[in-house]
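step 4 of 6: structure.
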Amino acid sequence: AFVVTDNCIKCKYTDCVEVCPVDAFFEGPNFLVIDPSICIDCALCVPECPAEAIYQDTEIPDDQVHYISLNDELSQKWPVITELKPAPQDADEWNGVPDKLHLLDK
Ligand code: SF4
Ligand code: F3S
């Protein structure tokens, strides 16, 4: 499955959800996750993300591996999102800031 990683936090552009053919994205307050049991590995979402935050689980950078279980866990409790919505006003300021996990709102 594909996995949303650190750089989505506080960016949350939501371009990814528009292309997903199986509605695999789930929305928290400042982050999205993919339900690995729904994702069909089509890879369509990867180039849509302005934050380059989406990776296949088999190719995920070593320092992002903990996001695999986090996507699984949070997708079970957050609501599905299928339509683009405006990004946070300061999204561009957070794009590229490393290690935002402590800023994740659950
Ligand atoms: Fe959806 Fe395809 Fe991205 Fe999986 S890889 S979340 S199926 S768009
Ligand atoms: Fe996040 Fe990128 Fe989607 S920032 S909301 S994974 S477009």
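step 5 of 6: annotate
 - The chain is about 20% helix and 10% strand.
 - The chain has a mean pLDDT of 98.
step 6 of 6: archive
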